[in-house]
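re: the backbone from monday

yeah here it is again, tokenized this time
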């Protein structure tokens, strides 16, 4: 079993010319955690990973693996495994030789080397593939070879930059489960960079959500989805209805809002700044068609404007009857007792106060996060990896 190590970034910064790609990032990842850095292209995920791996030099700040400072160490002395989206396998070397490369660079040879390669390939379920060449393998098998190469020297931390992006949907979902199973069984620390929200939700112990070089929120998948702190997080993770709201009073220490002329009950959960104008967020699956005597804290008449079939879900677009048009998406799971609504039909819909979430100005949120973060991926990163191609394999 591998011994995972903690990873700590202290006020890590990176400038590309005048562009501040990473701005004083402070992140603490515990030993044995699976942490995903999630955000759109240009949010700084890869910039940070490249500095941790050693392919980019920080402009300022420090990096620690355990209590060991590694900021100035060369790639091959960091004891960090790296897996890239394109796998970076040597095309002219066999599976055995690709995996053995990292051990050879560390001075290992003979029976010890062979035993290490055999163990690593067994971990990724590729025993018997030692003599194959990379072009003879499927995409999933090549990804497993890259993972075996990253694990073979027993690193304390493994970095993975979009490693499943080149796989088809079915294989990618299978590999998500396999990677998580392997990480838990080995006890290694994994830092996983992705722009795929479902991937991050499925695999992570914690998620670091980034946008425009700032950390928007850090938390468990459930916390990120159920209690987003900013509008960006609520829109990037899952689907949300955003309603402009104005505070008009309180009842039993709960806010009363005006939404398009409708009075709406909400809660103060997660609200730090009780501004007069806010955004009310409700997930589509929390909006309920009120049939068969169902009730909700907030109930409104609405007209069904559109319906889209999504297989196990039907998404309806409805317009609440209000002084100003208020459009809401309603997601209804398909099952035998599920209500159906017809376009043009007047229906009753609603949601409970606890299922809405008030969001204030996003600009207030980044400084309050327990973890701060990175931003813009740059073409220079890819040039850096190319220039360090051999160290990538034994990182």
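seq for it, each position gets an aa:
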């Amino acid at each position: 079993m591998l011994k995972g190590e903690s990873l700590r970034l202290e006020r890590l910064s990176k400038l590309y010319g005048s562009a501040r790609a990473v701005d004083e990032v402070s992140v603490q990842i515990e030993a044995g955690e699976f942490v995903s850095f999630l955000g759109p292209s240009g949010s700084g995920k890869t910039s940070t990973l490249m500095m941790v791996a050693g392919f980019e030099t920080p402009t300022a700040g420090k990096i620690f693996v355990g209590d060991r400072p590694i900021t100035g160490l060369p790639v091959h002395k960091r004891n960090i495994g790296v897996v890239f989206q394109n796998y970076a396998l040597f095309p002219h070397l066999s599976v055995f030789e690709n995996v053995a490369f990292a051990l050879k660079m560390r001075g290992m040879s003979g029976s010890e080397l062979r035993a290490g390669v055999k163990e690593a390939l067994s971990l990724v379920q590729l025993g018997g593939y030692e003599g194959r060449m990379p072009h003879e393998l499927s995409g999933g098998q090549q990804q497993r070879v890259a993972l075996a190469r990253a694990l073979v020297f027993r690193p304390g931390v493994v970095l993975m930059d979009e490693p499943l992006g080149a796989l088809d949907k079915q294989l990618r979902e299978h590999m998500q489960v396999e990677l998580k199973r392997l990480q838990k069984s080995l006890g290694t620390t994994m830092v996983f960079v992705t722009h795929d929200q479902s991937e991050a939700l499925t695999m992570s112990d914690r998620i670091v959500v980034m946008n425009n070089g700032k950390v928007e929120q850090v938390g468990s998948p459930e916390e990120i989805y159920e209690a987003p702190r900013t509008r960006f997080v609520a829109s990037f993770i899952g689907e949300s209805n955003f309603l402009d709201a104005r505070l008009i009073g309180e009842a039993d220490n709960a806010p009363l809002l005006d939404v398009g002329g409708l009075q709406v009950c909400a809660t103060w959960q997660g609200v730090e700044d009780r501004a007069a104008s806010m955004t009310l967020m409700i997930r589509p699956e929390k909006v309920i068609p009120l049939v068969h005597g169902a009730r909700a804290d907030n109930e409104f008449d609405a007209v069904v404007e559109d319906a889209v079939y999504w297989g196990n879900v039907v998404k309806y677009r409805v317009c609440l009857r209000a002084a100003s048009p208020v459009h809401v998406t309603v997601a209804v799971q398909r099952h035998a007792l599920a209500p159906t609504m017809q376009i043009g039909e007047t229906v009753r819909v609603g949601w409970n106060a606890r299922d809405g979430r008030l969001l204030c100005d996003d600009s207030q949120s980044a400084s309050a996060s327990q973890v701060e973060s990175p931003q813009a991926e740059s073409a220079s990163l890819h040039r850096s990896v190319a220039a360090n191609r051999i160290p990538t394999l034994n990182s």
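The chain has a mean pLDDT of 87. The chain has two domains: 7-227+368-393, 239-362.
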